[in-house]
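User: Quick sanity check before I run a bigger batch. Here is a single chain. Can you write out its predicted 3D structure?
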Amino acid sequence: MANTAYYLKRSRAAIVFQIGLLLFIQCLVSVLLPVWLAGLTLIILLVSFWIQLKRPILDYFQAFSIDEWSIRSTDQVVQHMRLTRVVNHHFYIVLYFQQQTACSHVIWYDQLTRKDWKKLKLLAKLF
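Assistant: Done. Predicted structure follows.
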């Protein structure tokens, strides 16, 4: 697999999606629950969103073969992993690795260049 190194940016689409979900949840909660409980829920939602933003995200990944990948997160830790599944959800692609069953990596369409996004979609079809 030649030329399969991907450099990722922070996704604006993911942040807009998360904020939209938080607003939707807060609207439902404010209608269904008392004001003090809705305020407490808002604080919990904002803290969870802030923790999500502080988490290290995938920064770079490269294929050595069809299933052997090297990934690097923003905390500069490089790991070699075995790719087990790639799922294309049109706006984002989910990479599942064998070593991490609890954590998969989501790649949004705006994190890559158009050319790299098409290569990754092709990989999802082949996998």
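Strands lie at 5-7, 58-63, 68-73, 78-88, 92-97, 105-108.

User: Great, the batch can go ahead then.
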